[in-house]
Amino acid sequence: MTNKITIRKGQLALLAKEGDYYQVLETGEHRLPWFGKKPDVLVVNRDGSEVPAGLAEYLRRFQPEWVEKYCLAADLGDNEAGALYLNGMLLEILPPATRRLYWKADDTLTLVRLNTDEVSVPADIVNAVLQPKRGAAVKGRDAILVVQVPAWHAGVLKIDGETQALLPAGISGYWKVNHLVEAEVVDLRLQVLEVSGQEILTKDKVTLRLNLAANWRYSDVLSAFAQLSKPLDHLYRELQFALREAIGTRTLDELLEDKQIIADVVSVQVANRMAAFGIEVASLGVKDIILPGEMKTILSRLVEAEKSAQANVIRRREETAATRSLLNTAKVMESNPVALRLKELETLERVAERIDKISVFGGLDQVLHGLVNIKGKDNAA
């Protein structure tokens, strides 16, 4: 007596007795012996899936003809990577020295072998990794370093410790397997570096707190990265050193008299030092100079005293000028009766402005004579 087993399209059945596979059943209806020990049946899908490691090793060793007929062998060398495609879509990136079996899916499952000695990854594989057709991430994509360089930037690429030519704007990929690959994207435009909160002693032991800003750009990117591991950190330290030298060798009075001297000294010193490293300092300036609290009070009092002294000098100068003017006027009136008469009329006009009503007896001369007498009595009193 027999029983039947049906294998659908896209499937295989492996028959085994006591753990040994002895027959493969393809698509169709098959009869199995009824009497005796029933064989174990393993049904697999020919969909490009990976053969389990244990079964794969068994088939390679004992059934190599089955491997050749039903499987795709992904046996890669130490300097090979593999791109596994199914129906034209990239499924997986296989690293070097991979040893796997996949169930064939007709001719739609393919393996493309890639030489990792060529560090650059083909553009079609980079695009497939970035934009997978199925929407799901490609397995093994971590084996590729994708570098995206935007406009107005450049890419600094190091392969096995050696700096390569600058990468232009765009997308490129590189094998991370069998190589040490590093990439850094740098901005070629003018940038700002802030050096804040620097507390420095002046020559006369006064602590100043300064904030400085520098505008800089790369003049030679490869030179900068060939000589410096971190160019921006080096520029920051040079600005610190130059600022401390400019402040520490001058007194507070010198700095307050000419604040621009700090920016001038630092600018010249840093520009000369950084030019050899491919970095250009376009301009810099001190944003803030902050004094200690007690020094602010002392300077405020000093400024107040100076302004008060200046005000006193001006006041004395004006009083001297007014006295000299009166003396000159008196000399003119002494030698010129007409001028004296005009001065008397001017005085009478000022008096009349403050009086609502006035009665004149004896003419204008009598009024003037009486006014002089009144002033004389007031002075005597």
From TrEMBL:
<dbReference type="Pfam" id="PF01145">
    <property type="entry name" value="Band_7"/>
</dbReference>
<dbReference type="InterPro" id="IPR001107">
    <property type="entry name" value="Band_7"/>
</dbReference>
<protein>
    <recommendedName>
        <fullName>Band 7 domain-containing protein</fullName>
    </recommendedName>
</protein>
<dbReference type="InterPro" id="IPR001972">
    <property type="entry name" value="Stomatin_HflK_fam"/>
</dbReference>
<feature type="domain" description="Band 7">
    <location>
        <begin position="144"/>
        <end position="303"/>
    </location>
</feature>
<comment type="similarity">
    <text>Belongs to the band 7/mec-2 family.</text>
</comment>
<dbReference type="GO" id="GO:0005886">
    <property type="term" value="C:plasma membrane"/>
</dbReference>
<dbReference type="InterPro" id="IPR036013">
    <property type="entry name" value="Band_7/SPFH_dom_sf"/>
</dbReference>
<dbReference type="InterPro" id="IPR043202">
    <property type="entry name" value="Band-7_stomatin-like"/>
</dbReference>
